[in-house]
Amino acid sequence: MSEARTGAGPRVGVDLSVVVPAYNEELRLGPTLDAIVSHLTATEAAETWEVLVVDDGSTDGTRDVVAAVTERDARVQLIRGGPRNRGKGHALRLGVCASYGRRVLLTDADLAAPIAELELLDKALSEGHAAAIGSREAPGARIERRQHRLRENLGRAGNLLIRGLVVPGIRDTQCGFKLFDGERAREAFAASRLDGFGIDVEILRHFRRADWSVAEVPIRWSHQPGSKIRAGDYAHVLGELASLKGRSVRAAARSLRPADVLAVVVFLLMAVTLYAGRWIDPNGRYLPDSLQDQNQWEWFFAVTADNVAHLRNPLFTDFQGFPDGVNLMANTVMLGLSVPFTPVTLALGPAVTLGLVMTLGLAATAAAWYRLLVKRLVRHRGAAFTGAALAAFAPPMVSHANAHPNFIVLFMIPLIIDRALRLCAGTRTVRDGVVLGLMAAYQVFLGEEPLLLAAMGMLLFAAAYGAVRPDVARASWRPLLKGLGVAALTTLPLVAFFLSWQFFGPQSYKSIGHGDNAGNSPLALLSFAERSLLAGDPERADALSLNPTEQNAFYGWPLVLLALGIVVRMWERPLVKALGFTAVAAAVLSLGPEIRLPQTDLVLPGPWALLADRPLFESVIEGRVAMICAPVLGMLLALAFERLAEVPGLGTRYVGFLAITLALLPIVPAPLKSQDRPEVPSFIADGTWRSYVDTEAGETLVPVPLPDPGNAEALHWQTTARFGFRMPGGYFNGPYGEDRTGIYGAVPRHTSALLRDVRYSGRTPVIGEAWQAQARKDFAYWHAGALVLRPQYYDKQLRATVDKLVGRPGKWVGGVWVWDLHEGD
């Protein structure tokens, strides 16, 4: 490549560079340069602009024209592009890469768009856009002299093709009057490869992919005679577009760096390590910190597979909670995974399915956050990995990893955030809205509460970012609202039936309470979770949380201090301000409707009180709102990591990375605790129960005491028996009373409540005829065929109570005590 820049040479502090490509423009170039110089002399400071004319192998007096102007004004310079003509793209690339301006204006040599229109483009650039392109097709454009109708129609057809294939949303890519942010323009043109008229499309595509905002500005335009575009050039542009499309596919394949693959592999190893205790023997190991939730979730996956295999309604079952049944849609059975995993569940059992879903889901969630950070926030892979690891493996995520797949399988949330950000650009509003709607619909079948929390987090961030960047808010709110409307119209038809079943179907309920202490203590935000490897404090964590599965904060004071330091140090960035506000707001909301100040008797009203009684929010465990902080802290950490990596001073980098390490080490998670699960009694496992329960007659097997949220081992019996029998009681959410308030478990009856009291108190009650009569009524209501008691705490008292209720002693069969209710009929 041969090139030379003649004239005054580079200047420091150039504010505007005007690049003019020229090929055999001897006749038109002189008046164009005079007009440009005259306008810039009148409107720009004397030493802050330059005009670069790129001669692309002219054979006429083009260079002489430029030399004459340069003699009068040294700010006009000539760049020699070589001995032969290579095309507009080649010329523009040379000119932009040789420029020094904070802004770079591209204009054709014919000046079809008057130089005075620069003011309109400059206004758009000052509003925060990275590029402002003149448009002949945008509403408000004025065409003072039109091209020949054939050329005009060919141009419009080409634009339609370009919009459909490469840069949708831009009406006029080929207008030769564009203003760019200088640094971004130089980066884009340096990466470009096209030499012809397709360069405009290639550059705009680069800006789109980098998420640099492009504004299309209506301008005045007048066709000038002497155009260098020939009929064959249209075909050449189409060829360049085809080449560009092919390169984009190859570039996408090449963009997957080894570091990206390594990150995903490490995330998977982290998830496997976390669940190592279960994977030793998936069917024989239990996570004790899940309380009874592992039994419940295995049952959910198993019953869904059974419903699918037998073509039953996957939204309802009466295998537990008999005879009323269970509204599965109202119990977060994760149909988005439990249905696709049906073959695995049927072949390997629900314990393996649950292990796979939680392990792979957690790794996929980390990978999704990593993708979002690389695409939207940072380029440094180490920074993205660190931020994504914190987002996916933060203490509250590890806490829920014991028991709640719906709160750790969150790979759709980063995808939803990315698609919402696309809407703000206003490029493919309808398409992006449809895709967002499909994503939201799928997330509904993974977990509605995480979707609600994600929406809260995005709303907090949008409000904060809009406050610090009102220019971006003004440019984004219309396409965002339009896209959200399209998303809603896409989502609602897909989920309407399922949501109506959830909220109004059989065994639906209105809301469910979680007690008065479901919010976080302020100390929980600064303390360490039980499963933090180095700093875990089980006693303190237990005192500050509902249970081991609900340690929803526990980020640790070192990480909180580090995040505060990052926000202060990088306060100049609007993004950091918005992230800081989001983290603080989510943390405060998570404290609940009443904030109890530690070490005092002072109770302050919390902002959650404004939401606590609202529909949907009334069933949320408010402490979970602090989970929003995990990805936010991950993003702040990624930003700080990337800035440190760019700092030239070794000492500064050392201190910064040491601070990050010291903040993260205390919260590195330890593998989840696991233990051997109780064996299923042979009475159930070998099918002996079939001799006592006539399922053809609709009879049920009744465990003693009835399964409930405190003891749901009988759900494991039922999945082992492949749903051969139904049973009353259970662990699920259902309605209670005339107002259908949500409760955990089945509606208690006199006999079930009596047996539950004996189990927890160990006291044998006095049983008379009244209790026996009530028991007969309850047995009939449950369609009981047999009562089954396995050895457990207070089993002697339970056995004595059931002997008196039934009127005869039970029999020891297959490792359990059995009362056959057919005897004596």
From TrEMBL:
Pfam families: Glycos_transf_2
Localization (cell): Endoplasmic reticulum membrane
Domain of life: Bacteria
Reactions performed catalytically: a di-trans,poly-cis-dolichyl phosphate + UDP-alpha-D-glucose = a di-trans,poly-cis-dolichyl beta-D-glucosyl phosphate + UDP
Bilayer topology term: Single-pass membrane protein
Pathway entry: Protein modification; protein glycosylation
SUPFAM superfamilies: Nucleotide-diphospho-sugar transferases (SSF53448)
Family of this protein: Belongs to the glycosyltransferase 2 family.
Protein name (Swiss-Prot/TrEMBL): dolichyl-phosphate beta-glucosyltransferase
Organism of derivation: Streptomyces ossamyceticus
